[in-house]
Amino acid sequence: MGIMRSVLLWGSRNEWLRSQLPKYGIVRRAVSRFMPGERLEDALDAAELLKADGLSTVLTKLGENITSADEANAVAEHYREVLDKVKTRGLDCHISVKLTQLGLDLNPELCVQHLESIVKHAETTGNFVWVDMEYSQYVDVTLEVFTRVRSVHANTGLCLQAYLYRTADDLQKLLSIPAAIRLVKGAYAEPENIAYQKKQDVDKQYYAFVLELLKRTQANNAKPGIATHDKAIIERTQAAIGAMELPKNTVEFQLLYGIQREEQLRLSREGYKTRVLISYGSYWFPWYMRRLAERPANVWFVMKNIFG
Ligand SMILES: Cc1cc2nc3c(=O)[nH]c(=O)nc-3n(C[C@H](O)[C@H](O)[C@H](O)COP(=O)(O)OP(=O)(O)OC[C@H]3O[C@@H](n4cnc5c(N)ncnc54)[C@H](O)[C@@H]3O)c2cc1C
């Protein structure tokens, strides 16, 4: 892992930086490249604009590792409200939740209840709920919580991170359910005894999983999310879909708001289901640092905006 990436990922966990840097207008303005605004309405308005370009969306309220049951209740209630507003506006817009925002650190049972209440509500509004994957220490419990809720409700899918060695096994287990998987490379700092560190190794594992997902898609119809901005992988995935004679919409390409906008439009134009993840909320600092870490060139972009 490069030094810049390590420093940024360290910064994403630093409480002092988190409390200080968001106070500066200049930092807040830099964040606007990756999020349309802090309010839910900002995110919904952005989803409407993307819809006009043929893009579907998924909303996530930023926040993680909450420390009280009241906060977890408020987050669950908020997401139920989001589902109602999405329906009212007639958007093809999923939601994506972090289990540590639903009280996982406090009590996994509480977290199951909240996830289930959200997923049930999504059933009534005809929607779908993605579960994010966080630091590796949460993978086991996330799988457990997800599998319990998924065993009763089919309208939920889980994110898996290709950089973890264990994901090969986790993928097999989930495909046997069969659950919808959102495949990502992985955004956190993880040690080398559990995760690949080199981009080429992560990319290799990622694409092997894409092929696995495509093969299983043919067999069991669970729709995977290919969540990457990596143009080479996207093109190889498109070629594989063609070679396997799968319909274009058997996978969803998923990308983040503000990143590879041209690629998002190209995929949509070419008839591939494309979904853009829009983040909102005031707790954006750790998330923003992870976005910078994904492409350290972003830091120079921020510096240029600040100083010139
Ligand atoms: C829909 C979605 C959901 C996600 N959910 C999770 C999750 O639950 N858990 C998790 O660990 N991770 C999640 N991620 C993040 C993911 O793990 C990666 O950190 C992130 O997508 C960057 O990796 P990449 O696949 O785009 O490939 P990379 O190899 O990192 O990037 C490929 C190219 O994309 C462009 N690019 C990538 N990131 C940026 C950026 N921030 N700014 C500008 N350009 C960029 C660059 O041109 C880069 O060369 C999610 C990503 C997406 C798209």
Concise summary:
The chain is α/β, with parallel strands linked by helices and 308 residues long. Helix content is 53%, strand content 13%.
Number of strands: 8
Element order, helices and strands?
HHHHEHEHEHEHEHEHEHEHH
Distance between the termini: 29 Å
Instruction: Compute the CA-based radius of gyration.
Output: 18 Å
The top-level CATH class is Alpha Beta
Strand content: 5-15%
Strand order of the largest sheet: 1-2-3-4-5-6-7-8
Ligand names: flavin-adenine dinucleotide
Domain count, please report it: 1
Quickly give the structural class.
alpha/beta
Shape: globular
What count of helical segments does DSSP give? 13
List its salient traits:
single chain; 308 residues; alpha/beta; TIM Barrel; eight-stranded parallel barrel; 13 helices; 8 strands; binds flavin-adenine dinucleotide
Overview of the molecule:
There is one protein chain. By secondary structure, the chain is an alpha/beta fold. It has one domain (36-283): Alpha-Beta Barrel (TIM Barrel). Helix content is 53%, strand content 13%. It is built from 13 helices and eight strands. The protein has helices spanning 3-12, 15-20, 25-31, 40-52, 69-89, 108-125, 139-152, 167-175, 199-220, 231-243, 261-269, 285-294, 297-307, and strands at 56-61, 93-97, 129-131, 156-161, 180-184, 225-227, 252-256, 274-280. Strand 1 (56-61), helix 5 (69-89) and strand 2 form a beta-alpha-beta unit. The protein is globular. Bound molecules: flavin-adenine dinucleotide. Flavin-adenine dinucleotide (FAD) is lined by residues 132-133, 159, 161, 184-188, 199, 227-230, 254-256, 259-260, 277, 291, 294-295, 298. Flavin-adenine dinucleotide binds at residues 132-133, 159, 161, 184-188, 199, 227-230, 254-256, 259-260, 277, 291, 294-295, 298.
